[in-house]
């Protein structure tokens, strides 16, 4: 299960209150008054988006399912998305590289027309360095075959996890892309379909801003 809520800034609260009132009036067959409240509530929500104050939070509970990348990101991806920035310190191990690959596959499949993906991650300085570098190189070459440029950058001080789309949406996941649990077995449900894969407990914060900071 997951809990979702809008940010508690005054503009969002006012919009929600107005829309709730509209629903109440609608149920009482007071359609003219309800229409006015719907219009005012929608205007308030649009103002929140224009000001970059939109905030939605999703709390993914331990062992929850239904949170594949497609399910989580699809409403924020459209044909205006051409550039994506990912900050995630842990794109190192095999399963983390596969997670990043799945995320890239989603960007290719969705209606967006992504041309550039920026990845800022930390460099594995241990025994997994070759695996990380060769895996990311292969992903970069594969993306290039689909007309997408992957720009890699490493940082030894990165801690935050954040995904940004150039249409203004910003998604911060507490665990980054690595919020799925290991499947019970190779032939168990959830091994291929990540909507059926249990998740670790984490929080997803979604913002909208008119200007997306570049890495």
UniProtKB/TrEMBL annotation:
* SUPFAM superfamilies given in the database record: MIT domain
Record-linked InterPro entries: MIT_dom, MIT_dom_sf, MIT_domain_contain_protein1, MITD1_C, MITD1_C_sf
Q: Gene3D superfamilies of this UniProt entry? A: MITD, C-terminal phospholipase D-like domain (3.30.870.30), Phosphotransferase system, lactose/cellobiose-type IIA subunit (1.20.58.80)
Q: Which residues form the MIT domain?
A: 14-51
A Pfam family cross-referenced in the UniProt record is: MIT_C
Q: Where is the MITD1 C-terminal phospholipase D-like domain?
A: 66-208
Q: Under which name does UniProt file this protein?
A: MIT domain-containing protein 1 isoform X3
